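As a warm-up, study this chain.
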Amino acid sequence: MKYFVYIIQTVDNTLYCGIAKDVFKRFYEHINGKGAKYTKSHKPEKIVYIKDFEDKSSALKEEYRIKKLAKKDKIDLIENNKEFTEKFFYKS
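Now compare it with the structure written out below.
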């Protein structure tokens, strides 16, 4: 079972990072106030980053690493991963 690390951009231009088996289901939970405490007070706008992992442990390690990054570094990570994220959204 794959796990995904994702980053959500909020309407107030902050970034939230998390992991999920189903990113779109989790995003829907965030939008409806059933996600993380952070996204209850910072309304989610869109998913800007997705990366897949073969196991939960690897995904958790990457989530932890990303959460420690400065915002500028998170933005660089998002920009450098756009190709995969776009493929994830527009699979044929």
